[in-house]
Predict the structure.
Amino acid sequence: MAIEDKARTAANFGLFGEECGVCRSHLSIGDDKAARFVTIAWALWHNRNEMRNGGVRKSGQVLVHWAMEYLAEYGITTEMDAPTKPVVEHTVLWTPPRAGCFKINVNGATFAE
């Protein structure tokens, strides 16, 4: 699968997963089972759309295997810590304006009223 396809697929999965999260809150199943169910359902839906667009039908075993690998990869990538930039503190000291100058602070907000 191309990188662009994976990115598009991940975005679609995220939206589908959020919608199913609302349904899951009414069921008494754990997160792991819910994630597997949603991923397999999404794989079936995705394969059906591929078939409608001239793609090849995949077997249930292939779809479940693909869904579990996808879910495992998703879990690994979301558990990784994102690199953080070190916080650089800049000490800013107030200095009065030069002699003969005035400092004016202005607010950039405008109101219609």
Observations:
- The CA atoms of residues 40 and 67 lie 6 Å apart.
- The first helix runs from residue 3 to 24.
- Residues 3-79 form one domain.
- The mean pLDDT is 77.
